[in-house]
């Protein structure tokens, strides 16, 4: 997968999306930008293609959940993109696990997630 060094400003210009829409799609785990040392989102050309596809589906009336289904990770992203996506999902999941499970269960579930990420 290409370098993730494209700024939000360039992504907005190339996709026609607003910053708010892009942040929302990131929050909904539809796109998986990396972060700079200053915590700014950094995108690749593949991310831009994915955002254009998301925009096209939304414009045609698809809901967010339908877009997620349509763009399932294994079918749309290359191996490196899946790994990045799984790490983001694991981080989000770790935050949720903290409030849902006792420490012993949380530790076990975190190990399972780590195993799945390493397999990818």
UniProtKB/TrEMBL annotation:
Transmembrane segments: none annotated. Residues 5-73 form the HTH merR-type domain. The keyword DNA-binding applies. InterPro entries: DNA-bd_dom_put_sf (IPR009061), MerR-type_HTH_dom (IPR000551), MerR_fam (IPR047057). The keyword DNA-binding applies. Keywords: DNA-binding. One of its GO terms (molecular function) is DNA-binding transcription factor activity. Gene3D superfamilies: 1.10.1660.10. PANTHER family: HTH-TYPE TRANSCRIPTIONAL REGULATOR YFMP, REDOX-CYCLING DRUG-SENSING TRANSCRIPTIONAL ACTIVATOR SOXR. This is Transcriptional regulator, MerR family. It comes from uncultured organism.
């Amino acid at each position: 997968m290409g370098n993730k060094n494209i700024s939000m400003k360039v992504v907005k210009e190339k996709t026609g999306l607003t910053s708010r829409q892009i942040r929302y799609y990131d929050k909904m785990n539809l796109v998986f930008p990396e972060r700079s040392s200053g915590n700014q989102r950094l995108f690749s050309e593949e991310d831009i293609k994915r955002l254009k596809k998301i925009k096209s589906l939304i414009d045609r009336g698809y809901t967010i959940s339908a877009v997620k289904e349509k763009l399932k990770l294994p079918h749309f992203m290359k191996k490196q993109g899946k790994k990045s996506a799984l790490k983001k999902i694991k981080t989000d999941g770790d935050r949720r696990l903290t409030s849902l499970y006792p420490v012993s269960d949380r530790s076990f579930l975190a190990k399972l997630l780590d195993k799945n990420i390493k397999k990818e």
